[in-house]
Write a structure and sequence with these properties.
The complex is a heterodimer of chains A (261) and B (77). Chain A is mainly alpha-helical and 261 residues long. In chain A, 72% of the residues lie in helices and 0% in strands. Helices cover 44% and strands 0% of the residues of chain B. Chain B has 77 residues and is mostly helical. Classes of the chains: A mainly alpha (261), B mainly alpha (77).
Chain lengths: 261, 77
């Protein structure tokens, strides 16, 4: 097993994960997005005199005598393209990128986490990756549907999101390194508990210290709930498929008898 | 990779020690660096370009990945 063994399988697993995430996102995520865009357009139509926010923000423009509409073509992109090919591009690109990274991390930790097999340590890497880069950032800065969020605060919100995600990832890596050392020197129990509690404490303190984002206004709660559930389902589908596909592909290598030279 | 049973099976309590393959970190480092840089670029274009930061002018990338940006949890607009 070398870097190539892992990377090739990670990219393939990421491709599969991206496709599955697209199917989930299209099925459960597009209905609340369509509803939210309808709300956005209705509120834009009510306030046609509202000045355009800034040139980079295209969603609430009411310039040039017509109200901006998502169903219009924007830069040649129709709403139909946006929710099919555009959405698939996003999920597959993210899937392949994450698949490659997770595979290389799995390669680095294989054989180095106690007595965990390659498949077991890879499964652990994927699960911890989901917690660190999807679940925990979502809990602090949950996904916002169209019509929620001001174009004036996109810079701060983006900075908060990635800063918090970075803290979470660094804390997770540190927790695993610490836990591994404690497991070797003390006991597996000590290592796992200290690492787990340590990670939770660090991200909890960061979450309390960092600014809250609340720009919901009077957005309907049921649509928001439906959208956020579909968002975390999409992320869960992406990571779960990545973990299952990558461990399956690596397991085939692990159990394939090697030709003895 | 190789499975080698190191412990003798004669002992009733012996657990067969399975050798778990490792990857040389020095061999892994350049792959990790290159793939890491590519992944950051991909995540940037899907998550952020023509939103908080615009590397390219216009809104075509933003609009193309719009729904994915929302559903994958990135701040979109």
């Amino acid at each position: 097993m070398n870097a190539r063994t892992f990377l090739v399988r990670g990219l393939l697993a990421g491709l599969i994960a991206g496709i599955v995430a697209f199917v989930v996102a299209f099925t459960v995520g597009e209905p609340p997005i369509d509803t939210a865009i309808g709300i956005e357009e209705a509120s834009a139509a009510e306030a046609p005199a509202e000045p355009a926010a800034d040139e980079a923000h295209t969603h609430t423009h009411a310039e040039e005598g017509h109200t901006h509409s998502h169903s219009d073509e924007e830069g040649g992109i129709t709403r139909t393209n946006q929710k099919t090919w555009g959405l698939a591009t996003a999920t597959i690109a993210i899937g392949v990128a994450l698949g490659g990274i997770i595979a290389l991390v799995a390669a680095a930790v294989a054989g180095r986490l106690g007595r965990l097999s390659v498949v077991a340590s890879t499964a652990l890497v994927t699960a911890l990756g989901f917690v660190a880069y999807a679940l925990v950032p979502f809990l602090k800065y949950p996904a916002a549907p169209p019509a929620v969020g001001s174009g004036d605060t996109i810079e701060e919100r983006t900075a908060y999101y990635f800063a918090f995600a970075l803290i979470s990832i660094v804390a997770m890596v540190a927790a695993v390194v610490l836990g591994r050392r404690l497991a070797a020197e003390r006991s597996a129990w000590t290592g796992v508990v200290v690492a787990g509690v340590g990670y939770v404490v660090v991200v909890a303190v960061a979450a309390l210290a960092m600014p809250a984002v609340n720009e919901l206004g009077d957005f309907p709660a049921d649509v928001l709930w439906e959208f956020r559930i579909s968002s975390i389902l999409t992320l869960a589908a992406l990571w779960a498929t990545l973990g299952m596909a990558l461990t399956w592909l690596l397991g085939r290598v692990e159990t394939t008898p090697r030709a003895v030279a | 990779m190789s499975h080698s049973v190191a412990a003798p099976l004669s002992g009733a309590t012996a657990i067969p020690a399975v050798e778990i393959p490792t990857v040389d970190l020095r061999e892994l480092a350049p792959w990790a660096l290159f793939a890491g840089l590519l992944a950051v670029l991909v995540v940037f274009f899907v998550s952020t370009d023509q939103g908080a930061v615009s590397l390219f002018a216009g809104s075509a990338i933003h609009e193309w990945v719009h729904d994915g940006r929302h559903l994958l949890g990135y701040p979109c607009h």
